[in-house]
Amino acid sequence: MLLKWTRVVVRNRIPVVGIWVVVSLFGLAAGLNLNSHLTTSVTIPGSASQEADQLLAKHFNENTEGTFTVLMKFKKTTDAQVQIYKEKVVTASLVIPTSHIFQQRALAGVLFTSIGTSFSLIDAAQYTERFRQALDDQGLTDALVTGPPAIEHDVAPVLDSDLRWGQILAIVLALLLLLLVLGACLAMFVPLVFAAATISLALGIIYIMAHKMLMVLYIPNIIELIGLGLAIDYSLLIVHRFRRELMDDEVISVDEAIAKTMTTAGRTVILSGLSVSIGIATLLLVPVPFVHSLGAAGIVIPIVSVLAALTLQPSMLSILGRRGVTPYKFQGLMARKDLMSGMWARIGRFVIRRPISVLLAALAALALMASSVLWLHVTPSSLTAIPQNLESAQALKIVTERAGHGIITPNEIVIDLGAPHLARTPEVSRARLAFSDLIQKSHEVLLVSTDETATYIDPTEQYIRMFVVGRHDFGAAESQNLVHQIRENFIPRANFPGDAKIYLGGAPAQGVDLVSHLLKSFPWIVLLALGMAYIVLLRAFRSVFLPLKAILMDLTSIAVAYGALVLVFRFGMGSSILGTYRLDQIEAWVLVFLFPVLFGLSMDYEVFIVSRMREAKLHGATNNEAIVEGLAHTGGVVTAAAIILVGALGGLVNGHFAGLQEIGIGLAFGILIDATIIRGLLLPSTMVLLGRWNWWLPAGLARIVNVKASPLEDRETRP
């Protein structure tokens, strides 16, 4: 079927290319408008913190994601002057429709004003610049605006700039590496054209999806840079195989060479794309919308890449023909005709001679690199891990220096008394003050704010609000422990009359709920990814043990990647060179996202190499001969593809946001180790030791998965 499809595509190559030009232009146009539909929202449906936030929104008119915060330093100012400042802030806030002041106080030399709106995060962010100008017009030139809408407004251009520089870096590195690998020929541009078309269409699809579901602001950076590397990987594999077909048979026609390429390398790309898609699809199990969005957007890239590999790639190769893949003067590193005498063939023969020594050395090196994962600690996020030159970040820095990190993101307790007109009764007032005193005893609590004004009691007098300010950043372990202490210790000991119910909201509680939901989902992500990958590879390799070995090696790559995060971000190894943050904790969503993505990408290289080994085995090679031939034909292209992908990920590492830096470091380090130590040494050594068991699939299991059985062969005599 794939052969027939390829021949149809080649016959219609001009219309196929024309269709790709049209859809790419659509995607490019849509991508330019994508940012206006993206958000930094981390709401967690069904969580305890969301229940509290809904009560705050309904009864106190508080909308956390639409709330601006104004901070202004003052020195030796009279109470009358502070009151004037307050009035000017209120006047300036009128430029924001539906704005209302729900908290305004002077603390530690800083005037702190919270301004609520009815807008969503994206809509509120559009008023940031207008509000800042209004403050200037009131003479409050020292006032700084922060809060979720202002952060969203300030962060978006920086992410866009990071993406542009990341793209330039990735494209330049990819072009140099493609020249080095393929030589000076027109075919070196094919992977870049392939990647541009793939990413453009993917962005167009994501633009449509963003109208129907929440999409996180990081998506263009992650999708474009990972997509660039993945698309180039697939295209390079096909170009390399096409050129080998022409080099090995000088009389073969271009169309026949394309057909043979697509039935081998093309089939491998389909299997690889399926593996990557399966891994990323598991993110849809996480009941957190912004992680959902990463999964939904992430699936688009491998699917579109496979679609391009089956249509655009053979069309471009057909147009280029033999001359297009023939190098001019500089031949490139893969122009060698006799690959069986090359470096990767020599590595294969070395491993065959000393499989146990190579296996033990590789495992020892990998265990050492992964050992730092024992010091891994997670956090929901951190306010300090955003660029400090942004106005919203400067405002956060001022208030945290004066009043502590917790003042920006307090815990908010909502007490539902069960009936109206109870909040100001003596019995409830005594219970409220006693509850406040109880919470204040915690060493982590800086202050508890409560009284009987409209800020703290709703108009029906059924609901009471209390602010609990901690001493640390909301993502710190101390803040997370305080949330657990309030929920598990203080709230059960509250002594409000009747059927009062108490809820805990605010950023710290939301962070705890986020980590909890992610950790609960993570085992299911792992099990589903492993199970589905095993079934797919079982059918593809027709082997019981090869898929199991592939999964164990992928898990090793992931462990090494997690260890690299600890080494770089917690212990600072190479951070001064790479320009990364120093953080005691890794963002939890990064670890959850890394697992399926790295699992899928690592499986790519396993599929590329083992598919070629199996091809050799089917042509009559012994197990050891198949290992050498597979490495000789794919080791170079896999290493080149990995280096190109690592180069693309450099755009994330060089960015300004901790979460994206963590993704870049984790993926880059994991992929680099996977394509070298794991696939170059660990894979062949285990296959040598497994011998004939590599290719065994009993008849009973073969019937279940609906493939041809692979009976156990006679023992081979080792050379």
From TrEMBL:
Its main location: membrane. GO terms for cellular component: plasma membrane. The chain crosses the membrane at residues 12-32, 165-182, 189-210, 216-239, 269-288, 294-312, 356-378, 521-538, 550-569, 589-610, 631-651, 663-682. InterPro entries: MMPL_dom, Mycobact_MmpL, SSD. It is a multi-pass membrane protein. SUPFAM superfamilies: Multidrug efflux transporter AcrB transmembrane domain. Keywords: Cell membrane, Membrane, Transmembrane, Transmembrane helix. This is Unannotated protein. It comes from freshwater metagenome.
